[in-house]
Amino acid sequence: MDTPTAKVAWNANYGVVSSGDRRLAFSRQLSSNATANTPRLARSDSSITMPMPPLYQGPKPSRKLLRLATASRPMRRLALLLALNVAYSATELAIGLFTGRVGLVSDAFHLTFGCGLLTFSLFAMAASRTKPDNMYTYGYKRLEVLAAFTNAVFLLFLSFSLAVEALHAFMQDESEHKHYLIVSAVTNLSVNLLGVWFFRSYARVNIVYRNAEDMNYHSVCLHVLADSIRSAGLILASWFLSLGIENAEVLCLGIVSVAVFMLVLPLFKAAGNILLQIAPGNVPPSAFAKCSRQITACEDVSEVWQGRFWELVPGQAVGSLSIRVKSGADDQAVLEYAHGLYQDLGIQDLTVQTDES
Amino acid sequence: MESHHSSHPQIAEVKMDIASSASGAAGNKVCRGAACDFSDSSNTSKDAKERSASMRKLIIAVILCIIFMTVEVVGGIKANSLAILTDAAHLLSDVAAFAISLFSLWAAGWEATPQQSYGFFRIEILGALVSIQLIWLLAGILVYEAIVRLINESGEVQGSLMFAVSAFGLFVNIIMAVMLGHDHGHGHGHGHGHGHSHDHSHGDSDDDHSHHEEQEQGHVHRHEHSHGSSITVTTVNHHNHPSTGQHHDVEESLLKHEDGCEGTQSAAKAAKKPRRNINVHSAYLHVLGDSIQSVGVMIGGAVIWYKPEWKIIDLICTLIFSVVVLFTTIRMLRNILEVLMESTPREIDATRLERGLCEMEGVVAVHELHIWAITVGKVLLACHVTIAREADADQILDKVIGYIKTEYNISHVTIQIERE
């Protein structure tokens, strides 16, 4: 895990972190020079300390949730967005119920699901700061990836449901397009555009993820973007209908559905891959092969096998490796060498098992 | 990574040397196969069997579902009733859930690649997660429909039709629930059974070599531990092979002689505490949720039928039953979340393990202990062990791995030995 000195981490955003400026997001990640001086086999702060293991306490964020929820700028923005959305959907639901308009109620439901998702994202942002403990030895950072994945899955559901709606409109063949929905669509659009503005640096389809928060912010941004596309589609559809264009609703809904799908797919794949324990994305496979060749080239080593690497969150890779060492050789030196090699690749958490042949 | 994957298609010869010198406490400290128990093709026979049995069940369920759905669609179009068509749409969602489960089951069997060094077992978990999210989505949709029913003051909601349709839906769902929950040993929600790894079924040919194999120790156990060279008595074992004496083999895997014993094997499998596949379980939850909601809709329909003015009861009923459905999914969701967060599986007591390790002689300290699961049955462990300067690293490594394997049944272990 992070040794104390490694906390002074190399800043992936080159010091412009507060503005969230990600124009440099595609630059190559340098090898972690900042960690070059750390002892390779540092006895790090294990979460399971002996002889008195800490009592397992569940994640604490619920107690200080409000304080945490405003802890960082993106979180504050998300909290604001969430509050706006909740207020808006509550009013829409109330109005829909009182006036008996189904369209408003269905829109309110869409929004409620969205609010639920955003709440989960916010919770993930807050909870991921919790220190690793007995049960969660790797910490809580994965929550962010999970929140991103959940967002992506629901956005995919949204795109399917829009496609179903388009089909429905196609089969019904009458424009039961209710004009009072325009007001709600415009309001929805403006709220969501505000959200896109807040997270504007993440408003792209393919992003290089440097750390766990990136994925979460990206998913939130895509969520509000998809919602705004949907509202824009509805507005456009009713405008076309008023112009007398046939099948405008079908067309617009279809385009929106396809657009949302294409928007979300890369995030879905990336988040899914991390959850599937894929090998670290920023390290090319040839680099792993090269490392293992270098280790095998040592005189003391007879073979290397079972190298498994995976990413806990983007930017933090974990691995395990087995080395067979010739008998009588100094295994500690081999250990240090192996650790050094992999640290250059950016893999800090490595467990190396040395067997003597 | 490609290099050493390709150089280890056959690991058997490496094992020979070690077997003779090992203390016998653990058998091998090395795993068989380059990708070990996770994606070695020979060991997936047990996995594959479980998987194909589950797939068979799901396919039957899908076919049944589709049949019923077409019946409902035809009936709905003929009767021109929206209610029946809506119910057909719910059955369609069932089919979607089954499709997700089937896909996850099939995909989990893919061979590991250098990019996915642990294999694709996680896909099961992700598929189950998507399935559960679908359940939540559908519960929300149902509540929405109830609200719409409430708003539609036009009174075209016929209680009798609602009742009949949902009764039919309930009947269908119950049939499928029975079929999916077939080997329902005791209580559901035990996605994670014992937390031991089922992956050591070795192909028949390997058993002929007289070397230590990594048997699943205590595989059918409750509390039996096999230490050293003793022979484990398993609670359910239809063939206790007497020849184990000379091998030091600790326990014969039930699957050792798969060639001949299909029948007894499946009986044995059913006799022990059945660990239902997580995807079948999530499909079962889906169907269960649907039946619960059908009951709710039936009650609402009956109320509307009886007293059309009390429409609000329909909504309340739906809300209550939706909440019930969400509660049934909570336990599975918690399991899934724990696996995805790489947390220590519940059935393993990490502190006791660490204490046990520290008590071994030669071991000074243990740190960076990580225990996590790939999927509900397969657990891995990695830690750093600091030993005294003059201790014998190899011997301690053996002891540690043996201890972990016998006590906790974690077979995939990576231990880094450091000297003070």
From TrEMBL, chain A:
<dbReference type="InterPro" id="IPR058533">
    <property type="entry name" value="Cation_efflux_TM"/>
</dbReference>
<feature type="transmembrane region" description="Helical">
    <location>
        <begin position="179"/>
        <end position="199"/>
    </location>
</feature>
<keyword id="KW-1133">Transmembrane helix</keyword>
<dbReference type="InterPro" id="IPR002524">
    <property type="entry name" value="Cation_efflux"/>
</dbReference>
<dbReference type="GO" id="GO:0005385">
    <property type="term" value="F:zinc ion transmembrane transporter activity"/>
</dbReference>
<feature type="domain" description="Cation efflux protein transmembrane">
    <location>
        <begin position="80"/>
        <end position="276"/>
    </location>
</feature>
<feature type="transmembrane region" description="Helical">
    <location>
        <begin position="145"/>
        <end position="167"/>
    </location>
</feature>
<protein>
    <recommendedName>
        <fullName>Cation efflux protein transmembrane domain-containing protein</fullName>
    </recommendedName>
</protein>
<dbReference type="GO" id="GO:0005774">
    <property type="term" value="C:vacuolar membrane"/>
</dbReference>
<feature type="transmembrane region" description="Helical">
    <location>
        <begin position="220"/>
        <end position="242"/>
    </location>
</feature>
<dbReference type="InterPro" id="IPR027469">
    <property type="entry name" value="Cation_efflux_TMD_sf"/>
</dbReference>
<feature type="transmembrane region" description="Helical">
    <location>
        <begin position="78"/>
        <end position="98"/>
    </location>
</feature>
<keyword id="KW-0812">Transmembrane</keyword>
<dbReference type="InterPro" id="IPR045316">
    <property type="entry name" value="Msc2-like"/>
</dbReference>
<feature type="transmembrane region" description="Helical">
    <location>
        <begin position="248"/>
        <end position="268"/>
    </location>
</feature>
<keyword id="KW-0813">Transport</keyword>
<keyword id="KW-0472">Membrane</keyword>
<dbReference type="GO" id="GO:0006882">
    <property type="term" value="P:intracellular zinc ion homeostasis"/>
</dbReference>
<dbReference type="Pfam" id="PF01545">
    <property type="entry name" value="Cation_efflux"/>
</dbReference>
<feature type="transmembrane region" description="Helical">
    <location>
        <begin position="104"/>
        <end position="124"/>
    </location>
</feature>
<dbReference type="GO" id="GO:0005794">
    <property type="term" value="C:Golgi apparatus"/>
</dbReference>
TrEMBL record, chain B:
<keyword id="KW-1133">Transmembrane helix</keyword>
<keyword id="KW-0406">Ion transport</keyword>
<dbReference type="GO" id="GO:0005385">
    <property type="term" value="F:zinc ion transmembrane transporter activity"/>
</dbReference>
<feature type="transmembrane region" description="Helical">
    <location>
        <begin position="159"/>
        <end position="180"/>
    </location>
</feature>
<protein>
    <recommendedName>
        <fullName>Metal tolerance protein 1-like</fullName>
    </recommendedName>
</protein>
<feature type="compositionally biased region" description="Basic and acidic residues">
    <location>
        <begin position="196"/>
        <end position="219"/>
    </location>
</feature>
<feature type="transmembrane region" description="Helical">
    <location>
        <begin position="283"/>
        <end position="306"/>
    </location>
</feature>
<feature type="compositionally biased region" description="Polar residues">
    <location>
        <begin position="228"/>
        <end position="245"/>
    </location>
</feature>
<feature type="transmembrane region" description="Helical">
    <location>
        <begin position="312"/>
        <end position="333"/>
    </location>
</feature>
<dbReference type="GO" id="GO:0005886">
    <property type="term" value="C:plasma membrane"/>
</dbReference>
<feature type="domain" description="Cation efflux protein transmembrane">
    <location>
        <begin position="58"/>
        <end position="341"/>
    </location>
</feature>
<dbReference type="InterPro" id="IPR036837">
    <property type="entry name" value="Cation_efflux_CTD_sf"/>
</dbReference>
<feature type="domain" description="Cation efflux protein cytoplasmic">
    <location>
        <begin position="345"/>
        <end position="419"/>
    </location>
</feature>
<keyword id="KW-0812">Transmembrane</keyword>
<dbReference type="Pfam" id="PF01545">
    <property type="entry name" value="Cation_efflux"/>
</dbReference>
<dbReference type="InterPro" id="IPR027470">
    <property type="entry name" value="Cation_efflux_CTD"/>
</dbReference>
<dbReference type="InterPro" id="IPR027469">
    <property type="entry name" value="Cation_efflux_TMD_sf"/>
</dbReference>
<keyword id="KW-0926">Vacuole</keyword>
<dbReference type="InterPro" id="IPR002524">
    <property type="entry name" value="Cation_efflux"/>
</dbReference>
<feature type="transmembrane region" description="Helical">
    <location>
        <begin position="120"/>
        <end position="147"/>
    </location>
</feature>
<comment type="similarity">
    <text>Belongs to the cation diffusion facilitator (CDF) transporter (TC 2.A.4) family. SLC30A subfamily.</text>
</comment>
<keyword id="KW-0813">Transport</keyword>
